[in-house]
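If I may wish for something, please walk me through the protein I am sending here so I can picture the backbone:
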Amino acid sequence: MVRKHLPLNGQLEMLAALLLSLLSDVVLFVAVRQSIRWISVQLRPLRVCLVISGQIALIFLIVWLPQEISGRLSVKYGWKVIPQFLIMISGFNVFTAIAACIFILVLSGVLIHHLFWPFVSRLFYQVARYRLVRNHKAMASLGAICMIFAFPSLRGLVAGILGWLQFFQAK
């Protein structure tokens, strides 16, 4: 299909861009595999941040940079072949960039979990230790507080229900 619609030089540009895009896909997969091995040796926030930065740099290099260079070459020198080649490279690498973004999102989740789990685990372990879930008074109070914050217009109703419950609890 490409052969029927493009002249020979357009076909060579597209084929070269496709091969270079395939090479960048292979580089991405190798980089992801090596970074996972590097992180799995010892999970440290600095390592995760470095891998995230590397993935962002890779996206920058394979999508944004070819477009930027092609625009500058086209404007400055009036060239047509090399800017078209660079635009094709950038276009073919969009899905590679999407895959790198998904990896960045997963690593961001790992980083957030690694940073905040020590604080959250202390809370959860205390809840399990003191068996707050089985304490009906504590759970009713927590539910009332959540209702007040969720629906500020119901403060009077929630206060009335709590007063009613305390009245029957006293008897």
